[in-house]
Every structure is written in structure tokens, then in C-alpha cells.
Amino acid sequence: MNIKILCYNKLHKEYKEIYNYFLNKLKNNVILELIEIDEAVNGDLKLIQNKNEEAISKKLNNLKDYEHILLEISASQSSSEDFAKMIENNKDFKGAKIAFIIGPSDGFSQEFRQKYNNKLSFGKITLPYNLVRIILLEQIYRSIKIIKNEPYHK
């Protein structure tokens, strides 16, 4: 299975140990690539959103054969089992290619969000982008364990 995580900015050093922990656990089951994009932060909100959306859209154009899943705070929430079913359905029916999209700090415009049918929320709270990456990796790992019917140490 090929998974890309598209996100803004570099992972802070404080998060790297746990990020690498889950990356190491996934290496035998998933080919995972982190695609980091420099976030535009200065200027008018609409201009910043346009710049950030343009930058990520360029990266997504190279991933047209991937299923795109936008992490969106207002999307419906899923259980770990539902998340695993989504991963398994992609693996079985859609070529085993998923691109998860984590937005910039100011979020995406309504127009950008409407382009994506596949959306996922980890809850209504705002989380730092570094932590979202960790949560996403953990849920991918948990999904693999669920799909393989293997125990997950809690």
C-alpha cells in the first residue's frame, strides 16, 4: 500500500521520535511518504489561502491515481474500525494508493474543501499540525492491525 501525507511545514524536532516510532512500525506494510509544503503565512487571509491551496494542488496533480482524503475538522468522524474499512476498501478496490491532505494553519477555503468528497475528522477540536501527523500515523498503523486481525497493544 502506498500512502502519501501532504502537509505544511517541517515536523518539529520534539515530535520526530514518536513520528519515527510509528513510521518504523508501518514500514513492513506501507510505503509512506511525507510531502511537506512551505506554508504562506503573511498577508491577507484570502491571499494566503490561495497561495497555500495552489501549492498543494500542484503536488496533488502528480497524485491523480491516488484517492485523496482531506482531513477536515467539520467532516464526519469515524471510529478506528471505520477508518480501517476505508483503508481496506482502498487497498482492495482502488489500487492501494491514498493521499491524506492536512491543511495549513489558516485552513482551506470553502471552495477548496468542496472539491473533495472524501473527508475525515479527528474531532471538533483544533490540533497542531505536528500532532495531527502523529495521530494520522497511529490510526494508519491501528488500521493495518485491525485489517490483519492482529492485536494492538493498548
Give a description of the structure.
Specifically methylates the pseudouridine at position 1915 (m3Psi1915) in 23S rRNA. Pfam families: SPOUT_MTase. It comes from Spiroplasma helicoides. Keywords: Cytoplasm, Methyltransferase, rRNA processing, S-adenosyl-L-methionine, Transferase. It is a single chain. The chain has five helices and five strands. It has a five-stranded parallel β-sheet, with helices on both faces. The longest helix is centred in the C-terminal third of the chain and has 19 residues. The protein is globular. 45% of the residues lie in helices and 18% in strands. The protein is of the alpha/beta class. It has one domain: Alpha/beta knot (3-Layer(aba) Sandwich), CATH 3.40.1280.10.
Descriptive key words:
rRNA (pseudouridine-N3-)-methyltransferase activity; 45% helix; RlmH-like; transferase; tRNA_m1G_MTases_N; Alpha/beta knot; 5 helices; 154 residues; alpha/beta; Ribosomal RNA large subunit methyltransferase H
Q: Nutshell version of this structure?
A:
GO terms for molecular function: rRNA (pseudouridine-N3-)-methyltransferase activity. This protein is of the alpha/beta class and 154 residues long.
Counting helices, strands and paired strands, the structural category is alpha/beta
Reported CATH architecture: 3-Layer(aba) Sandwich
Distance between the termini: 24 Å
> What is the helical fraction, as a range of percent?
40-55%
* % residues in beta strands: 15-25%
Strand line-up across the major sheet: 2-1-4-3-5
Structural Rg:
15 Å
